[in-house]
Design goal:
Layout (H helix, E strand, L loop, with lengths): L13 H10 L12 E2 L2 H10 L7 E5 L5 H8 L3 E6 L2 H11 L5 E5 L2 H4 L8 E5 L5 H10 L6 E7 H7 L10 H9 E9 L4 E2 L6 E8 L10 H8 L7 H13 L3 H15 L12 H14 L9
């Protein structure tokens, strides 16, 4: 019986990867946001930024053909790799199934991650179409990591570390900065990927804050509501949220808003993007105090 040849990949060459995919009868699926990072130096820099010691557990989102997976395993890390493409999953099994430190989770990470064992670290060349949604979902559901190193679209990166008052500041900025210290690592030009995307990317480090942040469930929908219409004032967005969430008549909603804003020291004509991240948490806690009966189900 002829021995099966080991899979050998040149992760630094677009033409080599293209030829390999063709030989395996595989193609790139745009809906999965698949882009392989060709630059070896950047791949090593991203893995090193995790600062994870041998034996630590790490989630790798979007393992692809295993370029980053191989580096993580070389460092002696326990890798839980998430991959949605069944063809790539087959290849990953062939490449790494012999390693006791490798575990593959097949399917859509947005659906599979909640059932998986928590880890201390996360690394991911995140698909553009789910990057912000995945990070927000992890935070809102309390799945936090000691360090996360992600590659995202540059526009998403700017939102992740944007400061209050800036054009890129959003509810996503608030989520990231409340739970993590967010630092840009590097700009990654589109030519560093295959296939080449239309935009540049950024490597971003998220380091978990030492202080524990406790958020009532009300905080997350309130945060989104306050940024739902950036042209509207805090008072208008807050009124719409209270009316929708608690079914209060207009006159009662107005009184609640007036009291809430007065106790918080706001005139009401401000816009959400001027508030520091901690202010949104304080607003949600104050609303719970003002509406204890209506908010019981939100605790």
């Amino acid at each position: 019986m002829q021995e099966e040849k080991p899979i050998i990949l040149n992760y630094n060459s677009a033409s080599s990867l293209r030829s390999f995919l063709q030989s395996e009868g595989l193609g790139m699926r745009k809906k999965y946001g698949q882009n392989f990072l060709l630059n070896s130096g950047i791949r090593h820099a991203l893995v090193n930024a995790l600062e994870a010691e041998a034996g630590a557990e790490v989630w790798e989102i979007g393992a692809g053909l295993g370029a980053m997976t191989a580096l993580l395993l070389e460092k002696g890390l326990l890798v839980r790799a998430f991959e949605i493409d069944c063809g790539f999953s087959r290849l990953l099994k062939g490449l790494f199934s012999g390693s006791e430190n490798f575990f593959l989770v097949e399917g859509d990470v947005m659906k599979t991650w909640p059932s998986q064992k928590p880890a201390s670290y996360l690394l991911g060349n995140l698909p553009y179409n789910i990057a912000a949604a995945l990070i927000a979902d992890l935070i809102e559901k309390g799945r936090l990591f000691t360090r996360m190193v992600v590659t995202v679209q540059r526009e998403v990166a700017l939102r992740m570390y944007a400061k209050a008052g800036s054009a890129d500041y959003s509810s996503f900025s608030v989520l990231c900065s409340l739970f993590y210290k967010v630092k840009p690592l590097m700009l990654i030009r589109s030519g560093s990927f295959y296939p080449r995307p239309n935009v540049d990317s950024s490597g971003v480090l998220l380091e978990r804050r030492s202080e524990i942040v406790s958020c009532p469930d009300l905080f997350f929908p309130l945060l989104r509501a306050l940024f739902s219409s950036r042209r509207k004032t805090i008072k208008n967005n807050l009124s719409a949220f209270i009316a929708s969430k608690f079914g209060k008549p207009r006159e009662v909603t107005e009184k609640i808003c007036t009291r809430l804003l007065a106790e918080f020291g706001l005139a009401g004509n401000e816009r959400a993007e001027i508030l520091e991240p901690q202010a949104f948490l304080s607003l949600s806690n104050l609303l719970l105090e003002i509406l204890p009966d209506e908010c019981k189900h939100c605790r």
